[in-house]
Design a protein that fits this description.
Strand content: 25-35%
Catalytic activity: FMN + ATP + H(+) = FAD + diphosphate; riboflavin + ATP = FMN + ADP + H(+)
Pfam family, one: FAD_syn
Number of strands: 12
Strand order of the largest sheet: 1-4-3-2-5-6
Shape: elongated
CATH class of the largest domain: Alpha Beta
Structural class: alpha/beta
Family: Belongs to the ribF family.
GO molecular function: kinase activity
Bound molecules: flavin mononucleotide, adenosine-5'-diphosphate
Enzyme class: transferase
């Protein structure tokens, strides 16, 4: 049952769009951008409740990001697009993901409207697992106590999970800040996996091969968080059938030595010649930052520096 003008879709591991066939569910709710270690601990808790009750875990999430609807000028650069978020939620223990199309109408639902429509009518929740700072409904007026109170009259129990991370609690905005500062090692420590950029390899200026360092170029994805300009040690995954994974030295920037204009993620795959990656979908997983981007006054000095970068990247990744 879905009593709203807003659209909601189902996603499960088969990529299909069907609701679980059970009478009741274990639900966890969040924006879940990045699916960081805090989100993963919520999923793990929902998983353990579900394993005891025999119900499926449904992760409820929103697309677009709620802030981009009620305060577009403050819309964050996201760590994950909705497809990747769903994939990570399923990998983290959800049996199905319910993606709610967040709009101004949904933003105006009172906490009780939200709980009734989503948790009771749509999902038949028997258990709801949320973080201790969870808020919901118009103006974020609902909190964990309010949810538990509503649940006691509507057939579901609420469990709140302590925030992970200690003094600096894990959060999507913390990861966005670390990625934006180029602290990709710090970001990975909160995500539980490397920060990443995914895209299709396009043609550049065909200069890399002349320099001895051909680079697979991916445009910086609009709206997504990308590490600040600089040079990084990273893994490159070919997401095609072969599914290979290579060590790489990666430049993020607009090639200031050549007065370039397009900001790109350019990966030189170490110790591999003759690759043809044009048109391939690749994922770049950032491991460590080597240095900032520089405008060199000669090709030779750029090439000398690139050789040193490659040596360091090789060491870091070995
Ligand atoms: C390890 C590495 C370090 C790089 N460092 C810089 C740099 O400091 N300054 C710069 O202008 N370009 C830098 N680049 C980018 C190169 O200028 C770029 O890859 C080259 O011009 C080839 O461009 P193309 O792929 O469009 O042919 C770096 C590239 C790599 C792989
Ligand atoms: N070791 C390698 N690392 C990255 N790309 C490579 C490598 N060897 C061959 N290639 C191929 O070379 C292309 C990059 O060459 P380059 O001269 O930099 O051209 P472009 O300017 O179009 O990126 C890549 O897209 C890929 O298909």
């Amino acid at each position: 049952m879905w009593h709203s003008s807003a659209v909601a879709i189902w996603r499960d591991v088969k990529g299909a769009g069907a609701a679980p066939s059970t009478a009741s569910t274990v639900v966890t709710i969040g924006t879940f951008d990045g699916v960081h270690l805090g989100h993963q601990s919520l999923l793990a808790q929902a998983r353990s409740v579900a394993d005891a009750s025999g119900e499926p875990v449904v992760a409820v999430t929103f697309d677009p990001h709620p802030v981009s609807v009620f305060a577009p000028d403050r819309a964050p650069r996201l760590l994950t697009d909705v497809e990747r978020r769903v994939e990570l939620l399923l990998a983290g223990g959800a049996d199905a993901v319910r993606v709610l199309a967040f709009d101004r109408a949904m933003a105006a639902w009172s906490p009780d409207d939200f709980a009734q429509r989503v948790l009771v009518d749509d999902l038949q929740a028997a258990h709801v697992v949320v973080g201790e700072n969870f808020t919901y409904g118009s103006k974020a007026a609902g909190d964990v106590a309010c949810l538990a109170d509503f649940g006691s009259g509507h057939g579901f129990a609420v469990e709140s999970v302590e925030l992970a991370g200690g003094s600096e609690e894990y959060s999507s905005s913390l990861v966005r800040r670390l990625v934006g500062e180029g602290d990709v090692a710090g970001a990975a420590a909160v995500l539980g996996r490397p920060a990443e950029v995914t895209g299709t390899v396009v043609h550049g200026d065909h200069r890399g091969r002349e320099l001895g360092y051909p680079t697979a170029n991916v445009p910086v994805p609009a709206g997504l968080a990308t590490p600040s300009d600089g040079v990084y040690a990273a893994w490159v995954l070919d997401l095609g059938a072969a599914g290979e994974r290579w060590p790489a030295a990666v430049s993020v920037g607009d090639n200031p030595t050549f007065e370039g204009v397009d900001r790109r993620v350019e990966s030189f795959v170490i110790d591999r010649t003759g690759l043809d990656l044009y048109g391939h979908r690749i994922r770049v997983e950032f491991v460590d930052r080597l240095r900032g981007m520089e405008a060199f006054d000669s090709l030779d000095s750029l090439v000398v520096q690139m050789a040193a970068d490659v040596d360091r990247a090789r060491q870091i990744l070995s």
